[in-house]
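I have a small job for you when you get a moment. Would you make up a two-line entry for one protein for me to read? No commentary is needed, just the two lines. Write everything out right here, beneath this request.
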Amino acid sequence: MKRIIILLLSLILFLTIVAYAQDIDIGAGAIDRGWYAGDTGNKRTYVSEDNPANDSGTLTSFEIWAYADITELEVATFYESGGEWYTRDNESIAGTVTAGAKRTYEISLDVESGDILGIAFIGQVERMHSGDAGYPAEGYLYESGDNIPMSGFTGWDADTAYAISVYATGTTGGTTENAIFMGMNF
């Protein structure tokens, strides 16, 4: 019986992997909001002030709900320093984001706690007013043109009562420890 217990414990140790990574989330949520922000003929940049990043690490999944088809989509993390805005990291999404449902894309963006999520695109993204369906929006910043990447920008316009349908998740990038069995790390 002791041999069976020792064998089982050895097997458990052999198969154990301990991960310390936590979830990061950022953005208002990619949902159908019933109204839009954007321009179907010109590129614009929008930065969601809803739900800043809750931790630092890497964003690995990006979600968006387009009101009208979106092209030339760029996704970025933004931060403010001394009244000026900067892009921490950015990535382009190839192809067309088809309107009418949540679309999810794999990304790899650096993010720091407190960063906010932004996009530049041609088309229209879902948005809603904070009074709609009881949603307490923080608002978004916007500017005409492609402002990704950004360095030292100060000219934002703001809609303080609206939310745009963007969201991203990732991990803190914490270390992953593997079990050690008989001196082997695997």
Notes: The radius of gyration is 21 Å. Residues 53 and 114 are 5 Å apart (CA to CA). Residues 13-20, 175-186 have pLDDT under 50 and may be disordered.
